[in-house]
Amino acid sequence: MSRLLYNFFIRLYPLIIRFLSPFNPKARQWRRGRKDLFTLLNNRVAPTDNTIWMHCASLGEFEQGRPLLEKLKSENEGYKIVLTFFSPSGFEVRKDYEGADVICYLPMDSRGNAKRFFDLVHPSLILFVKYEFWYYYLAEAYKRKVPLLLVSGVFREDQPFFRWYGGLHRKMLKAFTHFFIQNADSAELLELLGFKDNVTVSGDTRFDRVLQIAATVRDIPQISSFCNGAEVVVAGSTWGEDDEEMAHFVNSGAAIKFIIAPHDIGKDRLNECSRLYKKSMLYSAFIAADGKAGENINTLIIDNIGMLSSLYQYATVAYVGGGFGDDGVHNVLEAAVYGKPVLFGPVYQKFVEAGELVACGGAFPVKNALELEKLLTKLLARDHQYILASHAAANYVMGKKGPTEAIAAYIYENRLLTS
């Protein structure tokens, strides 16, 4: 991509958002959230402050970078943490997060915005999580010689960096002081572009995050009451396609409890789930009823954000949604960390941890409702395969512990935070 095309894109994108904002809530949040951004930064960051800037595309990347952010925050009290998001689905959920001093949207990439942002934030260290490569911000970091680390990066052959038209993207990579990446395939791809000495295969900091969550998880009394000693299937981050594949089994009348946490909790999606699952009630209604469900209720539909990572502790078997859609499966580690066999749809190839879980026997992809029902029936019987899968899932996650410590060690050994 040439800089001319890139500039055309970064000018067109806000115009599209402006056009969509009257009709689309996320577009409206994206636009409103960037209003008076520089005033906010001017008021919240003083010229004498030492700052660490972490940028995340959305909520998933935040959870990925969170263990490192919290470690640096706790060990460097003289620094302010500035946390930016590109997407409303990250900012709106974490705008009140107490682990950062300033939380805001990233101003749209441009030469002027990047210069103004750096003048106000003046970071001593920059952390970009997994992906999102904004040319002018990266160029400004390179120009000012600010240490810039990529955290839990992943590279694939089909990305622009490795295509004939990817000259501008390859130029962006030169701004990074060091790449901390998830796997050896990414390292090999970067080596093709001449990046070798500043590349470390450190793994994925999401492993540290889910281990952190599991170690501090608390019981949710209402959920325990609902499960009441039954075998339980927790289905997280489901889309319509996932629910359609599961519905027959859920409605079959077996003495099993189901907890469904849709990826989208908008009114239309919740109504769709309620129609598909014939013996269900919304979690909010369950709470309003003092934790009492009717005799025929076997399914709770979770209609809030933030519970899912704690819900997997109640599962006998976990199902993770997204694998029947084009984008692929969601976070399988949140379930695997509890030693639960994980099921998901057939689209998971782009997700390293999903493939590795399948390879070690901790997870099982299914192609259709028939396969799903057959496998659920077998695993819910807690047979020998269930025991092996449970151990495999837990051991897989535990064996990947430590990327956060490796990145922090690099920061300290190279004195990137010295004030």
Q: Helix and strand layout, with pairings?
A:
Blueprint: H1 3-20, H2 25-33, H3 37-44, E1 50-56, H4 59-75, E2 79-85, H5 88-94, E3 102-105, H6 111-121, E4 123-129, H7 135-144, E5 148-153, H8 167-173, E6 178-181, H9 184-192, E7 199-201, H10 206-216, H11 221-227, E8 231-238, H12 240-250, E9 256-262, H13 267-276, E10 280-282, H14 283-288, E11 299-301, H15 308-311, E12 317-320, H16 333-336, E13 342-344, H17 352-360, E14 363-365, H18 369-380, H19 384-398, H20 403-413
Description of the structure:
The chain is an alpha/beta fold. The chain has two domains: 212 residues, Rossmann fold (3-Layer(aba) Sandwich), CATH 3.40.50.11720; 180 residues, Rossmann fold (3-Layer(aba) Sandwich). It contains 20 helices and 14 strands. It is globular and about 65 Å long.
Task: Put the structure in a nutshell.
With about 425 residues, the protein is of the alpha/beta class.
Name its key features.
about 425 residues; alpha/beta; Rossmann fold; 2 domains; 7-stranded parallel sheet; 20 helices; globular
